[in-house]
Amino acid sequence: MSLTDRQLLSGDSAIALAALHGGVALGTGYPGTPSTEILEYLSHIGGKAQWSPNEKVALEVGIGVAYAGARSLVTMKHVGLNVAADPFFSVAHTGVVGALVVVSADDPGMASSQNEQDNRRYAVAAAVPMLEPSDSQEAYDYTLAAIEISERWKIPVLLRVTTRICHTQAPVQPRAALVPPQPRFEHDLRGRNLIPSNARPAHRRLRQKLSELTEWSEATPLNQIISGDKKLGIITSGVCYMHAREAFPDASFLKLGFTHPLPLKKIAGFVRSVERCVVIEEGDPYLADAIRAAGLMVESKPEMFRFGELNVDRVRRILAHDHSPEPVRPPGKPPELCDGCGHHVVFQALKNLDCIVAGDIGCYALGVLPPYSAMDCCVCMGSSIPIGLGLRHVLPPAEARRVVSVIGDSTFVHSGMTGLAEMIYNPPPTGHVVVILDNSTTAMTGHQEHPGTGRSLDHAATGKVVYEDLGRALGIKDVRVFPLGKDCAEFQEMLIAALASEKLVLIVARRPCVLAAKNIREYEKCAACATAQEVLVK
Amino acid sequence: MKKPVNVVIAGLGGQGVIKASDILSEAAFRSGFEVKKSEIHGMSQRGGSVTSDVRFGPQVFSPMVPPGEADFLVVLAPDQVEVNRGQLRAGGVLIAPDLIDPAALSNRKSFNVALLGALSTHLEISEDNWQASLHAVLPEKLHVANEQAFAAGRRAVAARLQP
Fold first, then answer.
1. Are residues B43 and A112, on separate chains, in Cβ contact within 8 Å?
2. Sheet bearing A504-510, strands edge to edge
3. Is B42 on the interface with A (CB under 8 A)?
4. Which of A168, A245, A312 sits opposite B37 (nearest CB)?
5. Using the beta-carbon criterion (under 8 Å), do B35 and A169 form an inter-chain contact?
6. How far apart are CA B65 and CA A311, in angstroms?
7. Are strands B49-57 and B34-39 parallel, antiparallel or unpaired?
8. Is the pLDDT of residue B107 over 70?
9. How far apart are the first and last CA of chain B?
10. Which pLDDT belongs to residue B41?
11. Do the Cβ atoms of B62 and A246 come within 8 Å?
12. Which of A45, A284, A519, B97 has a 20 to 30 Å separation from B106 between CA atoms?
């Protein structure tokens, strides 16, 4: 099968294929469910894609690509955009030359996330155009549309998808490839240096672009009316369109694909054309609030449907004003740490010592579940170290001495390093103990490489961040590397000593993820072969 | 509008639920149907419950099988049968894990494909399209074991239908 045939693709793969066909010069991102597969597939089909340490860095690399006149795709899960928000807001002000498409993969229902934020709010807050596909075909088409919009208005575009778009496979018919621009640099000192005297006119230029995009939004076929029974009109976007169309096949629909800025004139016309008009959307009442603020009378969902994903049944309930308790599915088997996982040893020790554990995002968050129940908080990427320090600063010494921060290797590279700088700069009186749980991969999202593995996205050897060297360079005097085995006693002894020292201690507890170990050995073998061949060639 | 065929495949992380749904959706796609396949990844990789919804027919809107509307429920783990039974419509068909003895398969890991073989006896998908899909989705070294498992699944259904 060729890449131009009609084929079954997930939304993630469809975005990647469109990036390839759209002439994207570089895809960047940080792994995060449900966005991870976009860059993996882009690399797999021959595009250039690379993991960054975190989403902020990924977006900043993407901005550089777009400033150089080339096309850029930056991918992340919804909470990743919080990390990347700083450059995201500002690049809207500077504008771009080549396309800059930012993919935010939201996770309504929190299948694998720490919160349920609705990133459509970011399009409004940062003043960037937003597209919301409703299936894989549209994920493909809208990625290409996003590239075209971004270059036409010289503005970053938010492609907002959700779990059911990313991880649903559906047929995709690719279309003709776009011709990529030739990268070249042109100075634009006033446009891209956001000192206040430049930023003030930049903000006005941004609002002018949005005003033009509002007019464009009224006319674009991305916002489509599907005429049906005039008794019921449904305004919707994303996968919710599919649920609503199935639940009420005969209704009239205003299907919004371009959801910021909204086509309020078109919406007003649609609202007036039907007897009853209902907005169907997951998460926040983003559409309903905007439509009502424009003075249009539409029904919105009651608060109970703000939580979790929608589906056909829930859409029927919303339309029927059925607010009765919904059937609860019997709980399935919860996930757990794999047999042989190195994290077992660490959490057994933390439990035995009754430590106060500031945790982080990753597989090891499963340490909060039985049998260990040995994690006291898990808030956001990198938070374990600063939260642990905060606890240490104010708790009575007897409790403060039991505080430990645990953080995974990929998470440490993502946003743990600034926590270590804070620890050196503002050490608590009782010291602190940080454990990097180094399983040599980004395990939770499916074994992606990161700067600490020394391999790039396609597993080829590259530069490597060494945590113990980094810790020492930052000024931590007591840095220990502990190869995890199956026995907990030795690790526990070391942890007791580290806690008792009342100094700053960094422990790198190392054991490759049991699921990834075999592949890691293969990659290392390949790297060794490649090095040997290079030596031969020389 | 003709309704799509709704299949829910359920099991535990690592059992091949997703792979089975890949094979089914590819076979349905090759048969000329519109297809949508949807599941939740992520935490499920760590041995937790996994379900995958496959819908195919002349037209498919929602990627998720509405609760209680599955025509077929294929379950790979005994303890996941009751958890998912509510997905099945009245008169829907349960393909339960006790239909096949994994020990009787040349490769236990092809248990998922054996249950697909059992499912295939109920669906309008040709043997050729199943074979083509198995070959497209699985690496070559696994083809023979999975073809055998698929056939074993078909035989198990036939044996049950014997008076």
1. yes
2. A356-358, A403-408, A432-438, A504-510, A478-483
3. yes
4. A168
5. yes
6. 9
7. antiparallel
8. yes
9. 38
10. 60
11. yes
12. A519
The span from the CA of A241 to the CA of A225, in Å, is 12
Helices (H), A68-195: 78-83, 85-94, 120-126, 136-153, 163-166, 189-192
The contacts of residue A432 (CB under 8 Å, 6+ apart) are A388, A389, A392, A403, A405, A423, A504, A505
Question: Is the separation of the CB atoms in A150 and A19 below 8 Å?
Answer: no
CA distance A330 to chain B (A): 5
How far is it, in rounded angstroms, from Cα A19 to Cα A149? 14
Interval A462-517: pLDDT, tens: 999 999 999 999 999 999 999 999 999 999 999 999 999 999 999 999 999 999 99
Q: Does residue B26 belong to the interface with chain A, where contact is any CB pair within 8 Å? A: yes
The phi, psi pair for A404, rounded to 5°, reads -130, 140
Nearest CB among B37, B48, B61 relative to A333 is that of B48
Type of residue at A389: L
* Pairing of β A168-172 and β A7-10: antiparallel
pLDDT at site A4:
86
Residue B36 sits at the chain A interface (C-beta within 8 Å): yes
- pTM here is 0.96
Could B62 and A332 be called an inter-chain contact, meaning their C-beta atoms sit closer than 8 Å? Answer: no
B chain contacts of residue A77, beta-carbon cutoff 8 Å? none
Query: What are the pLDDT digits (tens) for A208-261?
Result: 999 999 999 999 999 999 999 999 999 999 999 999 999 999 999 999 999 999
Instruction: Report how far residue A239's alpha carbon sits from residue B106's, in angstroms, rounded to the nearest whole number.
Output: 41
Distance from CA of B137 to the nearest CA of A (A): 12
Residue B50 to chain A, least CA–CA distance (Å): 8
Enclosing H/E stretch for A358: strand A356-358
Of the candidates B37, B66, B79, the beta carbon closest to that of A169 is on B37
> Coil, strand, or helix at residue B90?
strand
Put simply, the answer to whether B38 touches A336 (Cβ < 8 Å) is no
CATH 3.40.50.2300 fits B5-161, yes or no: no
Q: What six digits make up the tokens of A512?
A: 């490759």
Chain A interface residues facing chain B, Cβ-Cβ under 8 Å? 1, 8, 33-34, 111-112, 135, 163-164, 167-171, 239, 242-243, 245-246, 249, 309, 311-313, 327, 329-338, 363, 366, 444-446, 515
For residue A235, the surrounding DSSP H or E stretch is strand A229-237
**CA A237/CA A216 separation, integer angstroms:** 18
Q: Please answer whether residues A51 and A39 qualify as being in contact, where contact means their C-beta atoms are separated by less than 8 angstroms.
A: yes
d(CA B98, CA A306): 40
Q: pLDDT tens, position by position, for chain A (538 residues)?
A: 678 899 999 999 999 999 999 999 999 999 999 999 999 999 999 999 999 999 999 999 999 999 999 999 999 999 999 999 999 999 999 999 999 999 999 999 998 889 999 999 999 999 999 999 999 999 999 999 999 999 999 999 999 999 999 999 999 999 999 999 999 999 999 999 999 999 999 999 999 999 999 999 999 999 999 999 999 999 999 999 999 999 999 999 999 999 999 999 999 999 999 999 999 999 999 999 999 999 999 999 999 999 999 999 999 999 999 999 998 888 888 888 998 999 999 999 999 999 999 999 999 999 999 999 999 999 999 999 999 999 999 999 999 999 999 999 999 999 999 999 999 999 999 999 999 999 999 999 999 999 999 999 999 999 999 999 999 999 999 999 999 999 999 999 999 999 999 999 999 999 999 999 999 999 998 877 776 666 555 5
Tokens of A402: 């039991």
